[in-house]
Amino acid sequence: IPKRMWWQNSSVYQIYPASFKDSNGDGVGDIPGIISELDYIQSIGVDVIWICPMYDSPQVDMGYDVRDYEDVYRPYGTVQDMEVLIEQTHARGMKIILDLVVNHTSDQHKWFLESRSSKNNPKRDWYIWRPARYVDGQRKPPNNWIGNFGGSCWEWDEHTQEYYLHLFCPEQPDLNWENSATRQAIYDSAMEFWLQRGVDGFRVDTVNMYSKGDMVDAPITDPKSEWQFAGFQYCNGPRMHEFLSEMNQVLQKYDAMTVGECPHTPDMAKVLKYVSRKEKQLNMVFQFDVVDIGQGPYKFQTTPFNWGLPQFKHAIETTQNLIRGNDGWTTVFLENHDQSRSVSRFTSDAPQHRVAGGKLLSLMMSALSGTMFIYQGQELGMVNFPMEWSMDEYKDVDSSNYYKMVADRSHNDPKEMHVAKTSLQHLARDHARVPMSWSDAPNAGFSAAKPWMRALDDAAICNAKQQQSDKSSVLSFWKRMLQLRKQYSDLFVFGEFDLLDKSNLEVFTFTKTWQNKKALVVLNFTAEEQKLVYPTEVRSQKSELLVSTLDTPASDKLAAYEGRIFMLES
Ligand code: TEU
Q1: Ligand 1 centroid from CA 206, angstroms
Q2: Which of 17, 82, 111, 418 has the fewest Cβ atoms within 10 angstroms?
Q3: Predicted ipTM?
Q4: Mean pLDDT (the chain, rounded)
Q5: Which domains, from first to last, does the chain contain?
Q6: Does the beta carbon of 148 sit less than 6 angstroms from any atom of ligand 1?
Q7: Could you count the other beta carbons within 10 Å of the beta carbon of residue 103?
Q8: How far is the C-alpha of 181 from the C-alpha of 320, rounded, in Å?
């Protein structure tokens, strides 16, 4: 058994600075606001906090467009505020990680301003510049790749008459990792600056996109569009492992932990190469198997609820089995700032079911192996905002670009626009970005002023203040589950996962095994009662109920959205 590391048996709480807590009444969350709620965060039972980008930024993509790695976005605070946050987090025995966004910078970053100033600027090669292609005398980008937020991922620069690459917004030019001086500057500015100030590691944004390969045209998967999906080309390129090994040398100096974001990588052998201990690259990654479930070729091209429980189980099994019989590590998460709310998505946000749904997902996650990540508000069972909210309430560039694209393509056909809005209500990133529901006060207790995004009206019935004093709340249930997870960490954090009812459409049943210990987990994913059936695999064993999402569970059936864990005696 490999030595256990602190980050394996840790639960991480993700904070979105703009929406967590506003301390100075400007409608935007800030670092002093985070500091003021550290006791709350600790009371949940988590060990680590992850702060989404708080760097100086023009905020085209909510801080994932960094203008200066060594400064803080002023409405959030200052570098000094961050130093206090680091110190105060450590003082409580918790750790803190930051978001490392180094696939691209903002187009306002001084490196890019220099790079675009002339073709012979020393930093020209720090970004990815290419001449135009001419087809029938018409100027075209170097290839047909579509960007993650739609449109070509090349932007024409009038001044120097070349295109630059941007896998996300045009305001997010991709750094050229092929250049060793660029890499060194990234390590110094984005990493060492903060490691020296005591941060314990990084969530590494789009970590598998640094090496772009030969950038040839992508195959045509959407004949109606000039721009084609190229994720399998720009992810996991030929020099990825070389770059990460080099980056790892910096991390090792500080014993820093990493969790990389790893989209478009269905091949588990490839994933394992990033997270295997002997490879010394990343400690773990976020795979997209679970959160991408039911999505169309473009994220939003989907019929809401277009997934079945067997698919969900399969996705979980895939990420759980990543660590079977090897030296890799995995993660457990259902939400983050790029996902809508898990209760709305995977259970039900109907008033009579939402609490049960929140507890069911908490119980399930707490029994899964890997490092656990909880997104702010998830511990309360916060849900998506409703269909009645107008398009003005959506602030994310991903949402507005999609809506515009459908409008253009359909010439504003009301039916198509309705479908597009339904998808956004189901899947938009905006749902995770509304203010945290602290209390039933105005603006959900998040701010004294009108917040930058509308707060949920629903805060009247679902908020941290009420749930803290309610023993049957989703929050109280999370606290209990995180304790149990620690107490039985051999089984829950490190154990082997076995799926027992692959094709059952209503109930999800699995066991966790560690040496001679075994737990049985049974989850009812429907709004109806289900018969409680012990699978044949465990029928001969004596079982003892460890926990149910209900206070008084029935002996022979599962209530709507009820989950239970049994300890099995061998
Ligand atoms: O996300 C990168 C990513 O691959 C996607 O999940 C992306 O969010 C999705 O395609 C949008 O629908 C990361 C960050 O988590 C995200 O917030 C940033 O926008 C993005 O990188 C660019 O930095």
Answers
A1: 7
A2: 418
A3: 0.97
A4: 96
A5: 11-104+180-383+461-477 (3.20.20.80), 110-165 (3.90.400.10), 495-569 (2.60.40.1180)
A6: yes
A7: 23
A8: 38
